[in-house]
Amino acid sequence: MLKAVYPGSFDPVTYGHLDIIERTCKIADEVIVGVLNNKGKMPLFSVEERVKMLEEATRELPKVKIIPFEGLLVEFVKELNANMVIRGLRAITDFEYELQMSQTNHKLEPGIETMFLTTSLEYSYLSSTIVKEVAAFGGDISQFVPEVVINRMKEKMPQTEAARRRV
Asked: Which residues bind ATP (predicted)?
C-alpha cells in the first residue's frame, strides 16, 4: 500500500495545492496532507484553522486525511508508516530548494522517497503569499482559492486603506 504525505503550510490552501492533492490521489492509496506548525513563521491562520479549511476543501476525496505536525518531516512520515513525500514544483527555483530538502531527508531516513509533481500550468504562478497580497488590496481571490478560504480570508485579512476606500 502506497501511503504518501504532502506537507506544507497551506496558509491558505489554494487551487494549486488542491491540484497536487487530487493528482496524488491517483497515485497513492492514502494521501496524508501534513499541515506544518512552523514556529519560525507568523501564519495568517492557525494550524487548526488551516486543518479545517483543508478538511472542507477535500471532503470529496475519501483517500485524504488532514493531520497537523511540527518538527522534522521524516519523523512525521515515519510515525505514519508512510513511504513517500509529495512535493509540488512551480518553477526551477522551487526545484533547487526542494532537491536540497529531499536529499537531506533521504540522508536522515533512506527509506523515505520524495516524488515531485509539477504544478498544472494553470496554477504555476499561484502561491499562498500571492493570495494574501491580492486579498489585502481587496482583489478578487475566487479564481485562486475555494469558497471556504474566501470566507475565512474576509473574516481574517486586514485590508489596506486603498481597499477599504473601494468598498
From this structure: 9-10, 17, 88-90, 98, 123-129
Report the binding-site residues for ATP: 9-10, 17, 88-90, 98, 123-129
Residues flagged as binding site for substrate: 9, 41, 73, 87
Q: Which of 44, 37, 9, 10 is nearest to 133 (CA)?
A: 44
- Over the stretch 103-148, which tens digit does the pLDDT of each residue have? 999 999 999 999 999 999 999 999 999 999 999 888 999 999 999 9
Domains of the chain: 3-124 (3.40.50.620)
pLDDT tens, residue by residue, 25-83 = 999 999 999 999 987 788 999 999 999 999 999 999 999 999 999 999 999 999 999 99
pTM confidence score: 0.91
CA distances, 113 to each of 23, 41, 66, 77 (Å): 17, 26, 20, 10
CB 68: neighbour CB atoms within 10 A? 16
